[in-house]
Amino acid sequence: SHADSPVILKILQNWVPRVSHYFDKEHYTYVGHQIVIHESIEHFGAVVWPGALALSQYLESNQEQFNLKDKKVLEIGAGTGLVSIVACILGAYVTATDLPEVLENLSYNISRNTQNMNMHKPEVRKLVWGEGLNEDFPVSTYHYDFILATDVVYHHAALDPLLATMVYFCKPGTVLLWANKFRFSTDYEFLEKLCNMFKTTILAEFPESNVKLLKATVREN
């Protein structure tokens, strides 16, 4: 039906360009807040990718449909932290996770952009996809309303552990929002696996950036 077809959007230039010799700081504005992101050249996860911009923009524009206020939100592969910061500004209890080597920059960006704000204090934690989930995030204690993931699928081999991680955290009632740039056959293979595991809808497409934004929920038998 027409209602189910994705909305076609453009990633808006929400960042303020700065003249700098070092490509290390980006300034964005979301939900009325200036956000300064420090990027790190050494690490893959420490650059703002288009999926993060797409999801941040979508969450900002669709606050009725996806109301994050007082919701428990987990971001996997949080990278620079932009999406987690936006979720925080929107009132969520945020846990931002990534690989150990990314956490220092991630923590810096999140604390810098959320301090002195009247919002739930976000948490930054290590999460290696598919590893130690039962120990670090036992189901009895941790239940999330939303799982956010952006640009987690690129040319790499960690796709099965990534899917296993999504399956682990997606309980009945959890909404997974995943935005990704689609370039490689592996991206589409992952999408196919996701569609087999979950009830999946494409919410939005950003054709100029090759980004798709998907919503996935557990299939109710």
TrEMBL record:
InterPro entries given in the database record: Methyltransf_16, SAM-dependent_MTases_sf
CDD domains hit by this protein: AdoMet_MTases
The UniProt record lists the keyword Lipoprotein: no
Pfam family, one: Methyltransf_16
Top-level taxonomic group: Eukaryota
GO molecular function, one term: methyltransferase activity
GO biological process, one term: methylation
The UniProt record lists the keyword Metal-binding: no
Protein name: MT21C methyltransferase
Source organism per UniProt: Rissa tridactyla
Gene name of the encoded protein: Mettl21c
